[in-house]
């Protein structure tokens, strides 16, 4: 973890991340950067086996206040990603969520 008055960077990982009884993500890493009114995150994993399980998901969240508004405006960009489970490739395109 590194940071100063303007930003915070976090990198963490582990050999396995287990979700429930059936999902095990090997060599899991989380990278995060928070600066100003934005936060970025990258989640990645790879089992490095013949039967491949790997992924790399990246997102960016921004918070702003609309002129005259009482609630903050939240925007989340989910960038293109490829996830491979049991050697099956799943691609997803960019998605934008606004609240």
Structural features, described:
By secondary structure, the protein is mostly beta strands. It has one domain (2-98). 0% of the residues lie in helices and 71% in strands. It has no helices and nine strands. It has strands spanning 2-3, 7-19, 23-35, 38-46, 54-65, 72-78, 81-85, 88-92, 95-98. Strands 1, 2, 3, 4, 5, 6, 7, 8 and 9 form a nine-stranded antiparallel beta sheet that branches. Strand 4 and strand 5 (54-65) form a beta hairpin. The model has no long low-confidence stretch (mean pLDDT 91).
Helicity, in percent? Answer: under 10%
- Low-confidence stretches at least 5 residues in length (pLDDT < 50)? none
- What is the N-to-C succession of helices and strands? EEEEEEEEE
Largest sheet: 9 strands, antiparallel
In total, the number of strands is 9
Proportion of beta-strand residues? over 45%
Shape: globular
Q: Strand pairing plus helix content: what structural class?
A: mainly beta
Oligomer: single chain
Spatial gap, N to C terminus: 29 Å
Q: Output mean pLDDT.
A: 91
Count of folded domains: 1
Radius of gyration using CA atoms only: 16 Å
Query: If helices are DSSP runs of H or I spanning 4 or more residues, what is the number of helices?
Result: 0
